[in-house]
């Protein structure tokens, strides 16, 4: 809603700016090109950061936890031991690690989807983003790509869950839990992992966007310096 109102007011703002002689020195094309470059830098950096060992698991900002909707399983297993060994907690820890490994394996799928969305950015989109909140570009990208990312991520994450043994680990967890309780456990691991993986990805992109908007050292090209320097 905020963006829609801003776009409706944009022609009047431009007229007032021209009348007052407050020229930015930037063409519309330069603004859009700069924003596209900023998004390209942010998305490539974030996807690359996550697409490595411990990209998710080693980063507390994006680490994928045990599924919250069945957290009672983890709680019940926390103190479950056999012959004094904490087999329940060990199974939970191994399972969480494998969830994160699956997300790390799939993270590279985001790059071509982001490239397509960034390429399609219009002048109107760019102006709204430039004058928007510190995460306006990230939110724009999320709206444009989330469904496609989920479609692309989920099959790969399901495959990765199988390859890294997460499904087997989940079976171990539920088997231990069923020793304690007869209540069956059923959750869509791929859907849970995909959602958390995408949340983490956009969280890192927002951090990269804020850096470019506020930190001169993060503006890695003359175009970024020119476009975002006007906003300082």
Structural class: mainly alpha
Q: Summarize the main sheet.
A: none
Shape: elongated
The radius of gyration is 22 Å
Tally of helical segments: 10
**Helix/strand order, N-terminal first:** HHHHHHHHHH
Sum up the structure in keywords.
single chain; mainly alpha; elongated
Structure characterization notes:
It is built from ten helices and no strands. The chain is mainly α and 232 residues long. The longest helix is centred in the middle third of the chain and has 28 residues, at 136-163. It starts with a helix and ends with a helix. The model is unreliable at 1-23 (pLDDT under 50).
List the helices and strands and how they pair.
Blueprint: H1 2-19, H2 28-50, H3 71-77, H4 87-106, H5 110-119, H6 123-130, H7 136-163, H8 166-180, H9 189-214, H10 222-229
Give the structure's gist in a few sentences.
The chain is an all-alpha fold.
């Amino acid at each position: 809603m905020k963006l829609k109102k801003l776009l409706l007011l944009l022609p009047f703002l431009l007229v007032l700016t021209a009348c007052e002689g407050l020229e930015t020195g930037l063409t519309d094309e330069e603004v859009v090109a700069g924003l596209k470059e900023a998004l390209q830098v942010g998305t490539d950096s974030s996807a690359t950061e996550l697409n490595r060992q411990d990209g998710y698991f080693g980063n507390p900002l994006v680490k994928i936890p045990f599924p919250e909707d069945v957290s009672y399983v983890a709680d019940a297993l926390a103190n479950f031991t056999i012959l004094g060994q904490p087999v329940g907690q060990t199974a939970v820890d191994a399972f969480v690690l494998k969830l994160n490994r699956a997300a790390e394996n799939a993270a590279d799928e985001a790059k071509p989807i982001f490239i397509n969305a960034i390429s399609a950015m219009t002048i109107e989109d760019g102006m709204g983003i430039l004058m928007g909140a510190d995460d306006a570009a990230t939110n724009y990208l999320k709206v444009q790509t989330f469904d496609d990312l989920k479609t692309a991520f989920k099959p790969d994450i399901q495959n990765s869950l199988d390859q890294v043994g997460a499904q087997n680990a989940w079976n171990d967890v539920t088997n231990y839990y069923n020793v304690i309780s007869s209540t069956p456990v059923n959750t869509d691991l791929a859907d849970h992992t995909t959602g958390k993986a995408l949340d983490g990805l956009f969280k890192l992109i927002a951090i990269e966007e804020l850096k470019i908007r506020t930190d001169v050292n993060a503006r890695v090209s003359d175009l970024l310096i020119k476009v975002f320097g006007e906003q300082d």
